[in-house]
Design brief:
single chain; two-stranded antiparallel sheet; 33 strands; disordered N terminus
Length: 475
């Protein structure tokens, strides 16, 4: 009898604890009418859950809100039928120390933040909607004013725009469960300085209200032990992107992105399917991406991009089992990406200089500025309907070293070019091309099928009627 009584008491305690663990935001004053500003009410529910440990839930409807901060031990659950709608007032996103496009600075908080916390989650089949067009428009207005002054590089930092979700300096974090993330004002999901992060099951749709600048999908930035899987991405910039700091500031921080797995995902619209950079300063180590499908409006399947002032490295990178359908360029590597953005020079006579401009314009020694990529394995790539197989440009002084490419099956109109490479090996490769590929260093490549390649320098002539992707900005 005593055992039964104790069991009943334990069950009652567990049920009471389970009931107490559910904190519905409407009980704290949140109203799902799409008009009431709910920031304080939602945050009150989160803070209550943080004190007792538990889950914040919502009654079905649309909740207008500014920045909210998920605390340690809290799960923010958005069930189907629930939408968090971002405020269009930048004042509703308080400034916080963070990193933006490779530079440490104060920047508006994201709509939903896990900021210096542990054991937190954002999950469910609901929606987080940034309603970001007002921020896209403000960026274009500023950039239009900046470009004639030689300040293209500064516009991205001075035009404040909120990210949709930020995971910053946090550990043991989960995001996903079927979340729909849409219309982000800036990057959609930014994982920075964080460890043990799992993103499992997100749908990102940023192009439903136009084409927003810098509406990246998932950015993994100087973080480690990250898993991204079951992502479905439609954005207007990088989709699945690895970052690690920019120029002098990134070299000062010197934090790599490492021990990352990206798998079982699809990219439908983006600047590239999988991207390394352009923020390469801290380096990349032990990254694996596989079972990725890239289709639709995506100009490049696999993209490595850096600049002469970035520095950093890539080592033990493994990309495999990737399918590309109608993607113009299969593999692009450029160490001189988008010069008008990549190189910060303060024009003569400009005296009112924000601190971030000085950081961006800090010189980097030439040798330190060369990114070094080595020990890269790419295999099981199936690409059909491509315009060009390769567009590869390394540094003469720091060639791209020890790339192994195996079991490539590429159908492309042109071969393209491989410049400044060393010890590249091709194995079991099928290239059906209309034009051979040009190699600058014949001694650096092994295993190339002679029918598909011409081993001699031959500069590629770009069609002058077509602007580059960087010039278009997909505006």
């Amino acid at each position: 009898m005593l055992i039964r009584i104790l069991a009943a008491m334990l069950l009652a305690t567990a049920m009471a604890g389970a009931a107490a663990a559910n904190f519905n935001a409407t009980a704290y004053g949140a109203r799902p009418d799409g008009k009431t500003m709910n920031t304080k009410a939602i945050q009150a529910a989160i803070d209550a859950a943080a004190r007792d440990g538990g889950t914040v839930t919502f009654t079905a409807g649309t909740y207008l809100t500014g920045s909210i901060f998920v605390k340690s031990g809290v799960t923010l659950r958005l069930d189907k039928g629930v939408t968090l709608l971002g405020s269009q007032d930048i004042g509703d996103y308080p400034l916080r120390p963070t990193r933006i496009a490779g530079i440490e600075m104060k920047w508006p908080a994201a709509l939903v933040n896990i900021y210096r916390q542990q054991d937190a989650a954002i999950e469910g089949e609901g929606t987080i909607d940034g309603d970001g067009k007002v921020f896209w428009d403000s960026y274009w207005t500023l950039r239009k004013a900046y470009e004639p002054r030689g300040l293209r590089w500064a516009s991205d930092y001075d035009a404040h725009r909120p990210r949709l979700i930020q995971v910053f300096d946090s550990s043991r974090v989960k995001v996903g469960g079927g979340l729909l993330l849409r219309r982000s004002g800036f990057w959609t999901l930014h994982i920075c300085y964080s460890t043990d992060v799992t993103v499992d099951g997100v749908v990102i749709r940023n192009n439903s209200d136009g084409l927003g600048p810098s509406t990246d999908g998932i950015d993994i930035d100087s973080s480690r032990k990250v898993l991204v899987q079951h992502a479905d991405i439609d954005v207007n910039d990088d989709a699945l992107c690895l970052k690690a700091g920019r120029d002098a500031d990134g070299l000062r921080v010197a934090r790599p992105t490492e021990d990352v797995v990206i798998r079982d995902s699809i990219v439908r619209s983006a600047a590239a399917g999988i991207t390394f950079g352009s923020e390469t300063s801290g380096g990349f180590r032990n990254i694996e991406a596989y079972r990725i499908t890239v289709e639709g409006k995506v100009p490049v399947g696999i993209l490595f991009k850096s600049a002469h002032t970035r520095g950093g490295f890539g080592d033990n990178l493994r990309l495999h089992d990737i399918t590309m359908k109608g993607i113009p360029v299969v593999l692009r590597i450029t160490m001189n990406w988008n010069p008008s953005y990549s190189y910060a020079r303060i024009p003569a006579g400009v005296t009112d200089v924000p601190p971030v401009w000085k950081v961006l314009a800090t010189p980097v020694p030439v040798e330190q500025g060369r990114a070094r990529f080595r020990n890269v394995r790419i295999w099981n790539i199936k690409a059909t309907g491509a315009t060009r197989a390769f567009e590869v440009d390394g540094f003469k002084e720091a060639p791209l070293q020890r790339f192994s490419l195996k079991n490539l099956d590429i159908e492309a109109r042109e071969g393209g070019y491989l410049h400044d490479i060393e010890d590249w090996r091709f194995e079991d490769t099928r290239l059906v091309l209309g034009t051979p590929v040009a190699l600058e260093d014949a001694g650096a490549v092994n295993g190339l099928p002679p029918a598909s390649f011409v081993v001699r320098p031959r500069p590629f002539k770009e069609d002058p009627s077509k602007k580059s992707y960087e010039e278009q900005d997909k505006s």
